[in-house]
Amino acid sequence: MTTEQPHATTGPGRLGFARAADVDLFVERLEAFERGELSADDWRGFRLLNGVYGQRQDGVMMIRAKIPGGILSPAQIEALAVIAERWGHGKGHVTTRQNVQYHFVELAHVEEALRILADAGITTKEACGHSVRNWTCCPFAGIAAEEPFDPTPYVEALAHHLLRGPYSSTLPRKLKPSIGGCCGRDCSQAFINDLGFLARTKDGVAGFQVLAGGGLSTLRRSALVVEDFVPAGEVLEAADAVVRVFHRIGNRNNRAKARLKWAIDKIGAEAFVAEYHAEREKIRGEGGVPLTLLPQPVPPTLRAGLPQLAPAPDGYEAWARDSVRPQKQAGFSAVVVRLVLGDITAEQLRAIGRIAIAHGEGEIRATNEQNLLLRFIPTWKLPRVFADLAAVGLAATGANTLHDVTSCPGASSCKLAVTASRGLASLITKALDERPDLIAAARNLDVKISGCPHGCGQHYIAGIGFQGGMRKIAGRPVPQYLVYVGGGLRADGADFGRLIAKVPARRAPAALVRLLDLYIAAGAPGHAWWATVGADKLKALLADLVELGDAAVTDDDFIDLGETKAFEVQSGEGECAA
């Protein structure tokens, strides 16, 4: 599609995705809107395609920095820290799509923020709107022992190729892509994305399995395998084919049914695969799409005569249990930095950048669990890294376990959200802190929370998931959560949780604890176990939390978690789902 190169590099060995001209055009359109020369709808559509969202609150915006593959250089980390410090109320937020977001940014400061990002090679182009969204990638790409080859160069090639392409910002609806390669699991979450590539080898040739049509929200679908093996050199052609078919057959009249999964359901899987192959043939007839991989940064090497592992500081062993993962490169380890609810301060961002330079490969990767990853840490340096992280409050234990709760921003900023999902996440984290036995015994289960049915918090693929909703008690609205169990990802597909109960918000932590006690009593057998438990048993377990009579209701039940005023449903047309 597009071959023009971005204007900035991200650091040694990588090419940036930003263009100063994008920011210039943003300012030009903003001024036209302010002069009355651009309609409100046209302005909204344009700024969304440039990653700038309206919030529930008037006069402030959310900015989404698009981070393909979640790959960040220390210079980019510094740029993110500057924006957090100046206009993000001191922090940034890592999302489940490996982006970084800022909330409550005044429109007057958006231009300067976009320029700081662009100067560091970070774009917001097509971070929202009816476009090809951020390319997510397994954060362990290149260091995982079980991968057939490193997909990192391909995620960069795909992101550069599709960004600003002829179809990429004029789709019927958003298209979420991903790429990964860990055989035996789906680290990149390809099966819940609109377009996914999984690294494979066939007869010694590197290539990808091509998936399409996955998604969450009100219509859950595990992605369809549209081509079992595509040679790696044809990966751009395969991506183009899916994008073109979606551009042509997607529903442009009903946004609620415009995602690729709806288009596949409408014409059928067999017909969609035929359309895909026909488009592949058409692309070949046009001369194909050559693939050029960018040179990759040279990873560090261990020096001879390494020191012995230093004495471990207090707390190191508990932290290392879940935060440290050996790499396939002997002598190196990767470190997951747990960010509570995905939040990180400007000071912590800068500390991460310093640690990556001093001890690692000089890069940081965001993860789809809302965390950060440090890679190529010499194993003997791990105690030092722990101490440096602890000094800035980034040595939380339980990374990527039950304790590491995922949540969307919820009603604190999103117009679509019904409930304050971050409030529930905080209360659940506190409840787990008080029951370390649950954390220890059910660490292989995850908890995810969304403030509405759209599922940005990915609650549908959680071992235990919570979805914000509302009920009325004594004629007054009460925030509640729909409880799902049994969601998760397999190597060959996605399992979606089943709805078992609807509990008032303040009873949700108690519901979680009861479910965990049941799960642990069964031996913590994994997310698929929930499908074997009868609905009647689960219903009885939570019955007294579900059916609250007027006498059992307290004043607090009418206040959402983390809020101080009476709950009311204010959800509307949300721009995060636009």
Spatially, the strands of the biggest sheet line up as 3-4-7-6-15
Second CATH tier, the architecture of the largest domain: 2-Layer Sandwich
The residue-averaged pLDDT reads 92
In the predicted model, the low-confidence regions spanning at least 5 consecutive residues are: 1-12
What value does the Rg take, in angstroms?
Answer: 23 Å
- Compute the number of helices: 15
How far apart, in Å, are the first and last alpha carbons?
A: 24 Å
Shape: globular
Helix percent reads 25-40%
Q: Give the percentage of residues in beta strands.
A: 15-25%
Number of domains: 4
Give the class from helix and strand content and strand pairing. alpha+beta
Number of β-strand runs: 24
User: What does the largest sheet look like?
Assistant: 5 strands, antiparallel
**CATH class type of the largest domain:** Alpha Beta
Reported by name, the CATH topology of the largest domain is Sulfite Reductase Hemoprotein, domain 1
CATH superfamily of the largest domain: Sulfite Reductase Hemoprotein, domain 1
